Amino acid sequence: MASVELPARGRLERRLDGVVEDNRFTIAVVFPAVGAFTLLASAEALLPGPLNFNAYLLLFGVAVMRLPLVAGVAPLVTRRAAVGLFALCGYTYAIETVGIATGYPYGTFEYGVNLGPMIGGAVPAALPLFFLPLVVNAYLLCLLVLGSLADRTAVRLPVVVTAVVGMDLALDPAAVSLGFWAYDAGGWYYGVPWSNYAGWVLSAAVAVGVLDRALDREKLFARLERCRFMLDDLVSFVVLWGVVNVYFGNWIAALLAALFGYGLWRTDRFDFPGR
Description:
This protein is mainly α. It has ten helices and four strands; from the N terminus they run ααααβββααβαααα. The chain has one domain. α1 (about 10-20) packs across α3 (about 55-75), α3 packs parallel to α5 (about 125-145) and α6 packs across α7.
């Protein structure tokens, strides 16, 4: 039987799958481990000046770690999904702009590290690269953990929102310790005010609701079961922020990162063939 030629998009998606599959351990473990070392060395001013918190190296590393998630979701991006993801990008910029200008909903804070080009001199242009994967990774992990319970909206959405907030409970203390940003009023949770997490409940609820409507959940779950690397970006999250939190003694945040690692282990996502 003659082989059927894939359309250009299909060929690109298959090629991206192959690149990620062949380099899973490097992308999901080596990159975040090196990233953690580089960030900690930058925080201690141990690197040559231009390399300390180099924004373009940082963005390159983050983009590489996002590849498994991008490759995993790409075949599911219909026109409806694209509109939803575009809306989420706009929402990310909007709520961050409001937050910086008013201190609501996260609390008053300022960036302390160059995160690349800024929009209006205030909001990082790469913000969706940081925000959206938190929501998508939480959504995917919860689909696996909940199983058939994920069919119930009243269960699925609150659990995913809780997972997103839990991820920020692991991330924000590490980011503050590194000096990525600082809250004017501080906070007893490793320098982070609880108002930040109240804000995250709000922003996560909106983002999860949009994502839930944008993606076909049945097709997403089917792809998730077939695509072994689809949650590797969450593996990177556990490695990177777990290491940083341990270094600074943020033990609760480190344990939360480890909890997500446990979720990955329970769902059989720590498998890196050919490493």
